[in-house]
Amino acid sequence: MPMDEPFCYTSVLGQERAKKMVRRALAAGRLPHAFLFRGPAGVGKRLFARGLAAALNCRGGLPNGLPGKACGECLSCRKLKSGNHPDFLVIEAEKGAIKIDQVREMSRAITYPPYESPYRVVVMRDVHAMQAAAANSLLKTLEEPPPGNILILTAEASREVLPTIVSRCQTLPFLPLAEADTLVIIKRLLPEIDEETARLLAHFSDGSPGRALVLHRYDMIPLLRRLLAALAASANSPAGAVLALLPLAKEISEQTLNDEEIGEQKDNLPLFLELLRAALAAPLFADGEYLLAGSSPGLSFGSFSSREVSGRLRHIDTALRQLARNCNRALVCEVLLLRLASLP
Asked: Which residue, 115, 135, 113, is CA-closest to 124?
């Protein structure tokens, strides 16, 4: 963990409403037994959960013995930083789903008192991916967990969570970060990248540093630059554009990633097409135009009319719908790029 990475939940960038709700609960001594952190992927829910666990169990001489802020230096904090705290448990989806055996094992584990801390904090990630049997098994534990246990469930805002689970938790809303905050985080996590790339990642991440890391890890910005350059050159050389676009279509159609968090292959093509959509839409907005007009030739789409840009966006939306229907990926990408280039 970088030395300057936030450790206490109070130092996590953004999420002011969630911080305020937690501070109020701590000040009133009415900490709920279960939280539901709900918001977009990659905006800090996991970091916030660890920061809250650190604050609850810090031994750094807090006033009146009340939890509130982590020192980062005591034994408890050091164990959390190293990932070896016995009273901090993380349950993650296995092959895309949280299973009933995982829930049962967690329920048995929390029947025992915390090993060495005032609270055992259990983080259950992506509960929207929980199997029905696992969700039903969790309900009793959520309603009345053994003393000394705090459950933190995380879920994406766009995914449904069972109302019976929501009703048993205090929901904390997590929102996309401001672009300036996203840029700060990107520079801290990726100190080797240049300023222009960092700004592009921040702009196209939709307020999600996690999304920005995926864009960087799989070189989507360089791929986007190559594609935009080929599209911009297509008007002058249609035949040359075909030769340039078809290999790109193949490369784009193979956009997948090995998601270490869920241990399986995850389709990354829709994410790239959403990135392309945002890039093509940028000239419609004054504050985004500079992002496409950098030092590389052919990246400015300022010569396109609003009608032309809107037509290209519709082509991308069509491609996304086709992918959702499991149409042939390679063919979808080839047709899309030829349409974007206005080729017959």
From this structure: 135
